[in-house]
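Operator note (shift B, R.M.): manual run for Fungal-specific transcription factor domain-containing protein requested after the automated queue skipped it. Running by hand, logging everything below so the morning shift can see what happened. Input copied straight from the record, untouched. If output looks odd, do not overwrite the archive copy; leave it for review.
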Amino acid sequence: MNGAMLLRPMLESFERLVQDKSSQALTMLSECKSLARNIKAHRNPDISVLSLASLPTKEIADRLIDGYLRSSESIFRVLHIPSFKREYQGFWSAVADGTSNTPAVYRLQVKLVMAIGAATFDKDFSLRATAVQWVQEAETWLSRPSSKSRLSIPALQATILLHIARQTTGIGADLIWISTGTLIRTAIAMGMHRDPKKLPKTSLFSTEIRRRLWNTILEIAVQSSIDSGGPPMISLTDFDTEPPDNLDDMHLTTEDEHIAPQAVDIYTQVSVAIAMRRTFPIRLAIAKALNDLRPTKLSYHDLIRIDAELREAYKQLSRHLHGFKDHTTGPYELRFVDLIIRRYFLALHLPLFGPALHDATFAYSRRVVIDTATKLWQTTSGADDLASLSVCGAGFFRTIPIQAALVIAAELRAQLLEEECLGPRTARPDLVAILKESKDWSLKRIEAGETNIKGHLSICALIAQIDAIAQNLSDNEGYQSFVASVQQALHRCLAILQAASHVATISDSANEVEEDWEMPDFQFGVPESEGFFSFAPNWLLGDILPNVAL
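Run finished. Output pasted below as returned.
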């Protein structure tokens, strides 16, 4: 309840607005909900036409592949890049010849890689609908009745790519934790949790691919735990698979079995993944501690101890990534790793942010939360692939920036209320600037295809309430300012959703003749719960703030 309590004034104002049945805002809100459903319905293709998913030109496909390789694959190792590129060329040769010689699992890998790359293709996520179709095609193939053919390295790679693609395209991104359990059990059934040295003779190539995949599965497990508030479903005693060796992909071949790994201070294509693995134990401990349902609570003393351990791990990680002899770690990799690690500081201290506003005992936690939220926001800002993912992606790409913005809004409100003065109150300019940037950012997300407008409405409402406090407005004047801000935000959202719905309808009607001969519509995924804008006290808890207990 900590997160919702911080936003209680805003929630109460929304509750008051909902009670006014004559409000124009309710009418616009209802229309936005209807449009959002229409847009999402048109993104869900008929199951019978999934195999007819259109491919882009090879020129565009090449750009999508490059986008994936320079972003996701540089952090989460899934593919052996030379092998994938050979399959990719074979895929396009088959397309050119009009044949289907490429195995289905490799076709899925290509489409999933393109779907992930589509989120960094342009600022508007213009290929969202196509990416969604590719992801749903993969979900359909991988959800077939179990067979031993799915217990293979290529199929496991496709499953991992599907998890990542759902995060970038928004296909059930908030349900990743559920499918992560299946992914972990599948990997364990394949023996991925045992180090290949302990298995019958395994080639160097197979050894390293297995280690890389298990390494990425561990990342998915701990991150989905933080995302969902569920247990990580893995312990350090559940596996003995070692981290990957420090080898570039070109050194991994089926012929050469005697390649020595590079020194740790030599940069390779797996260096970032290896460095992240060193921080896995402390991050796993944090995920377990925060999501433990037992009645015993984490003491503040223990929390500070864990904070110190995480801080030391972060320092060592930073020194390592900046210390390669022959290479400078790319800005995307540095910012992405920074985003992931700093998130654990926020998750660790956020449950104490509310109490810290009234109890100086927890002042350190308040400072950590604000400093971390500020740095997280700065990390996702800019003009690189990470900034594109924060606008076009889903899952933690969306959650982290909006968490940061809402925390900063709560801090600004608290600072203004704490200030005793006769004239206008003043707030920290840097925090005010971030909050205003977050308003533009949340609108860009809707322009890029986001159909959930709650984040944008929340930020606009909070800005209005903070401005009202700063100007010493009366309660009634403050409420009127709140209503005006919400209505303006709804006007903007409505216009964007109307345009998006129109485009979706035109695209859909172009296929009506063909679809008359197809099977009835089949909707994928779990339907959204009713109540597009429910203002219960936990309205934002599961959607924006982490599910942790104090």
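Quick read of the result: The chain is about 65% helix and 0% strand. Residues 506-550 have pLDDT under 50 and may be disordered.
Leaving this for review. - R.M.
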